[in-house]
Design goal:
Blueprint (H helix, E strand, L loop, with lengths): L3 H22 L6 H14 L3 E5 L2 H11 L8 E4 L6 H9 L2 E4 L11 H9 L6 E5 L10 H10 L4 E5 L7 E3 L11 E3 L6 E5 L13 E5 L2 H10 L4 E3 L2 E2 L10 H35 L2 E2 L13 E2 L7 E2 L5 E4 L3 H10 L29 H9 E4 L7 H15 L1
Parallel strand pairs: 2-3, 2-4, 4-5, 5-8, 12-13
Antiparallel strand pairs: 1-9, 6-7, 6-14, 8-9, 10-11, 15-16
Helix pairs in contact: 1-8, 2-8, 3-4, 3-7, 8-11
């Protein structure tokens, strides 16, 4: 699925020099490299504030806790088709997690499904919507902004763990929007990024980042990430230890410089996959009227016309997914399933009260999605090998 050594070989000298500088300075916790990276990341996301933390999961928790969404009488709506942290961060903050189903085209949280859930809740109970920019594609932000405008006080918090560098182009002129391209991290009231090693912007371990345009949320997040301290050893609230290591910040600062070209390479590789699959005659391109069905073969990823996708993952749908994956494993081709069991069916989340059949689009996607190898250093002949192996399976 990934070959980290290829990227490291290309930037080894810069990374090692950055690490050595931290070792020489001996400032390992919230050193100057953390501030430098926060400033660079904020600039990349077009926001005034970026707060480094220990993980993407902590970034989600910080966003919620900074917004004081921390009571069991408060609810947050998110997607059941995501990594566990999208829901666990809500519960960890102390609020109630509510699910809404996904759009079968993009796998992102469906605004229509969210509106249905909101209609069943008492006024003011839902404090935030937490859409996930799944696989590196922004959720339909125009639709979520419309929902927010209809519910005063409702916050939009982006789970952008897989989407650093992704962007959304607002609706064209005449719809009340200027049509500009806005990066993930600047769309909502706050956003959370993960720099887990498999991400398109990856640390050498765990690391995360919260972004916001709000000085109030920024100030509270910085306080909460350091045990609730505004002054050393004076604790205003019960916070947490979630500081970004200086070594990780130094590595991320180097990698951030290469991210735009890396993301463009991912888009190019995705386009090449599409061409290879279509040429092989074993795939269809999904459409709004026919998003998921195919007799035998694969359904290719869909990119929303206003989304700038970064293809953190290249994910196909295959009705015989498990058999296909077994076949590819036998050919020495790595794959992964993101995610095999929706969150509403996870054992740990049974107390939320959901059951099979509650979110059919999420359950269907969980049974069919398959992520294929994609990373900037992947070669096109390797892509050909992948497609040929899948063609052999269907032949």
């Amino acid at each position: 699925m990934l070959d980290f050594s290829r990227q490291f070989a290309a930037i080894r000298e810069e990374v090692m020099a950055a690490i050595e500088q931290v070792c020489v300075s001996q400032r390992f916790i919230l050193g100057p490299e953390v501030t430098t990276f926060e400033q660079s990341a904020a600039a990349a996301c077009h926001v005034p504030h970026a707060i480094g933390c220990a993980s993407g999961t902590d970034a989600l928790w910080l966003a919620l806790a900074a917004a004081q969404i921390d009571q069991p009488t408060q609810s947050v709506i998110t997607t059941p088709f995501s990594f566990f942290a999208s829901a666990s961060s809500i519960l960890r903050a102390g609020a109630r997690a509510l699910f809404a189903d996904i759009d079968p085209l993009t796998y992102n949280l469906s605004p229509a499904s969210v509106a249905e859930v909101l209609a069943t809740c008492p006024a003011g109970e839902v404090k935030a919507i937490l859409p996930v920019h799944l696989y590196g594609q922004c959720a339909d932000w125009d639709a979520f902004t419309t929902i927010q405008n209809q519910h005063p006080g409702l916050l939009l918090i982006e789970d952008a763990a897989q989407a650093f560098g992704a962007a959304w182009q607002s609706a064209p002129a005449g719809t009340g929007s200027d049509g500009t391209l806005t990066p993930a991290g600047a769309l909502g009231d706050a956003a959370a990024f993960s720099f887990y090693p498999t991400k398109n912007l990856a640390a050498f371990g765990d690391a995360g980042l919260m972004t916001t345009r709000s000085p109030q949320l920024e100030e509270r997040a910085r306080m909460l990430r350091a045990h609730g301290m505004r002054r050393r050893y004076f604790h205003d609230e019960v916070g947490w230890n979630s500081r970004l290591d200086t070594l990780q910040a130094a590595v991320l600062e180097v990698k951030l410089r290469y991210l735009p070209q890396g993301n463009q390479r991912r888009r190019d590789l995705a386009a090449n996959y599409n061409q290879l699959f279509l040429a092989a005659g074993i795939a269809t391109m999904p459409t709004p009227t026919n998003p998921t069905t195919i007799a035998d073969g694969v359904v290719l990823p869909y990119t929303h016309p206003r989304a700038q996708h970064v293809f953190h993952q290249y994910v196909i749908r295959a009705p015989r997914r498990d058999a296909l994956r077994t076949h590819l494993t036998a050919q020495g081709i790595g794959t992964e399933v993101y995610y095999p069991l929706p969150l509403h069916l996870q054992e740990a989340l049974k107390p939320l009260g959901y059951k099979p059949g509650d979110f059919p689009e999420s359950e269907c996607a969980a049974a069919e999605v398959l992520a294929l190898p994609i990373y900037p250093e992947l070669r096109e002949d390797e892509q050909q090998t992948v497609v040929e192996a899948i063609h052999t399976f269907y032949a």
